Amino acid sequence: MAAGLRAVRRWALAAPAPPGLAFTRSAFVVQKANNAQPNWLGVGLAFSTSAALWALLLKEHNEDVMEYERRKQARGQKCTRCS
Amino acid sequence: MAFLPDESRSLPPPPLLNKGSMWLGFMGWLSALLDNAFNQRPVLRAGVHRQILFATVGCFVGYQLVKRTEYVYAKVDRELFEYIRHHPVDFQTA
pLDDT for B43-75, tens place per residue? Predict the structure, then answer.
């Protein structure tokens, strides 16, 4: 880990562009996630997206059921032999 | 071809919690738990918002996929029965 930190210092001082391996060593340049302080924006977005998705799903299901019943009625009055 | 053509709405819609949506919802939840495990968080108690979101997305995608599956099967069945109807000689049961 110390070698990685030295490498970071070298890159920051010397090169404007990180070397091609920067992605594989990105664990040394990003900050450690702090799980003690919730990312309230992320939490709010996640819950609101979930609620929206459930609402969309329920609405779609109910619309599908109604459309199917409607078409069955229409078909039933048109043709009694159809399967 | 559209993902769900209009004639697919003539089919009875699958129940909201069917095998596909439940399985994909479970997979979504499991992937949230896996994400907790990989980031060294308590597996079940952490990131409940993430677990709910992933499970919801899984259920949603599963429902759409099951609808398409049923449509494809119904289409194949219809073509099969049409073929049988047009070729009665090949399907004598006498």
Answer: 999 999 999 999 999 999 999 999 999 999 999
Report CA B56 to chain centroid distance, whole Å: 13
Nearest-neighbour CA in chain B from A1: distance (Å): 18
What is the CA A69 to chain-centroid distance, rounded?
A: 34
A16-61 pLDDT per residue, tens:
555 555 455 566 666 777 778 888 999 999 999 999 999 999 999 9
| B72: Cα separation from own chain's centroid | 12
Using CA atoms in the order A58, A63, A64, A69, what is the torsion angle rounded to 10 degrees?
130
- The reply to whether ipTM tops 0.90 is no
- Contacts of residue B49 in chain A, CB cutoff 8 Å? 42-43, 46-47, 50
Domain ranges of chain A: 3-81
Token pair of B26 as six digits: 């479970």
Residue A44 to residue A3: CA distance in whole angstroms:
39
Q: What are the structural domain ranges in chain B?
A: 17-86
Residues 36-75 of A with CB under 8 A from B: 42-43, 46-47, 49-50, 53-54, 56-58, 60-61, 64-65, 67-68, 71, 75
pTM of model > 0.80: no
